[in-house]
Amino acid sequence: MDPLDAITRTLAGSGIAARRPLHGGDLSEVTRLTLEDGRDIVAKTGPMVDREARMLGAIRAARAPAPAVIGVSDDVLLMEALDEAGPGDGSWAAVAKALATLHADTGEDYGWDEDYAFGRVEIVNAPRDDWPAFWGENRLRAHLPHLPGALSTRLEALIARLADILPERPRPALLHGDLWTGNLLFGPAPAVHFIDPACYYGDPEVDLAMLHLFGAPGPGFDAAYGPLDQGWEERRAVYTLWPALVHLRLFGAGYRGLVERLLDELGH
């Protein structure tokens, strides 16, 4: 028997009648399945899908929108299928309100109870009670051995002065952790769901920085989310640096210019 069919029979109670590939990330495979009983579900195959399932559950427990998990087996995650559409009237305001709802869920410290990874790039989530230390040690320092010497030296100098840039104890908000537009699933306006999370507790500005990395949210977002604390521009550069380093390691030298520009902005 086909392994995926066997998994759907066990977890969803029905075999597969039809399959359609969906756009997925670079590190996983996503397929929309029509089951023999007529239901549509989504199967995601890849590493750490069990951890992703727990993160989706945490997002839903915070009353923020995310697909419901049907079940997990080995490297397969089954989720509810959601209708997709382009952003329309009110969609970006809905993103802001959903993100504010997510960020209203708070933890005691910064981090998560499990590590995660983007491909070969490990994401260390060991909890800390000092936010600059978390960002420096858990997010930035791990990249030092993988960078050319000049970049490594510049990054190490930045890590040494993070306490002068970042707040010591911002509210530990539940973060999506990888919030670019490709991880927003827009439905008929204004519906939106968070997908492909890399959750942990941290400064809510981290998600906002990621959302602005490859562009800017659409109309209505800023007003619906609300104002940011003074100094957010410099903090945004620090927070954007982490995904830039991840992209440099995963996808190559084409992202070196972005890393260098961010370090320039930060005086390093």
Automatic annotation (TrEMBL):
| One term of GO molecular function | kinase activity
Q: What is this protein called?
A: Phosphotransferase
Family per record: Belongs to the fructosamine kinase family.
Which keywords accompany this UniProt record?
Answer: Kinase, Transferase
Source species, domain of life: Bacteria
Q: Which InterPro entries match?
A: Fructo-/Ketosamine-3-kinase, Kinase-like_dom_sf
Segments crossing the lipid bilayer? none
Keyword presence, Transferase: yes
